Amino acid sequence: MKHKQTIEKLLEVIGGEDNIKNFEHCATRLRIILKDDTLVDKKQAEEIPECKGYFFNTGQHQFIFGTGKVNQVYEEMNQVLDSDQKDDGFKDDVYKNLNPVQRVVRTLADILVPLIPALVTTGLLMGIRGLLLELGMDLTDTGLILFEMLTDTAFAFLPVLITYSATKKFGGNPIIGIVVGLMMVAPQLPNAWVVAEGGADPLYVFGIPVVGYQGSIIPAIVAGYLISKLEKGLRKFVPQMMDLVVTPFVSLTVTIGTMLFILGPILQAIETGVIDFIVYILEAPLGIGYIIFAAFQQLLVITGLHHSLSIIEISLINDTGSNVIQTLMTASMAGQFGAAIATGLLMTNKVKRSNALSSSASTLFGITEPLLFGVNLRHFRIFVSGMIGGAAGGLVTSLLGLAATGMGITFVPGLLLYTTDIWTMTQYLLVIAVSFSVAFLMIRIQAKTIRKELN
Fold this sequence. Notes:
The chain is an alpha+beta fold and 455 residues long.
């Protein structure tokens, strides 16, 4: 076994394999839930071979191995424990350790994260279209129509995707979720975007204005929740022989009726108000909102609250066609990246320096946990230097008025979201360079103190 020493030391640190309740892995971390947390030797956790960092959050002991390697360690650990089903029910165990706010954020993440690949692809296709036009390619009307089909479909039918994902998450019939989502954006209803622009009037039913739910997120999530609760409730008393007809019929009709005439309009207004308020704060005078967001965004990553940003990003793209959150997230990452690289170069121990630099590499592809928990959070000065770098990038973003055309990818891959012209791509690289350089310089200014702490 390639990682035998790593797993043996890991099991020793956590109090033996008998202390494991459940475990799984994400992109960079092996996440373990234990029966007795007091048995963990946190000092020895830093000595696990190949491990780039350890932290405890939401009831999970999280060991950072990095992209790719964590998959290998996980598979070998399954072999050692003689179980390939150990992660069954892991999410249920995680939810038991979350407070109400964390549960809401985790629920939103479970619903929205599966949709990100489709939305990322849409954003990349927008970038390809912009790049082709910038290179002087003369697209025919048919070519433009086909590109519109590729770039607009996912967002036009976004409530369908969300209702499906939400219904599946809450334990309902996902197919009923799809049907309700389709009804919410049915062509028989006035298009919400056209109505907002004054190009059409809403339908009035019993004096209630009714429009489609194109681009809506919260109403679609609530629709999925209603379907699931109705379905589960009906099955408690509907005779089994009638279940096939009664349960889906009532679930579907009650949900779509409630959404169109009662909850939908209210939730749509609330969602619009909240998003407008957040955008208003972000666009505060003198770039203050951008500066603060870019400085503190990586704190959201540490707490796991960054998943909730997906709602804002999706809404921004729907409403404006651009997404400044992506730019600011990249600035925040670049700041921490600059601080980590400068810190690694101050380390005299070759092993520690190598671990610090390798932990930072995944940041180039938008994954910052190894960098944060393996390097920057070990010393307050380092993390704050990264925040200052991010703030500088936020200011540059504000001055340039820069924003992405999509979501889901950041840092180097995110360059594909800025292909409308060469100047836009150059601006994006400038934001990264400023964030990185300012953070790097902040570490160099404090080099004497930080070097003493590190070595």
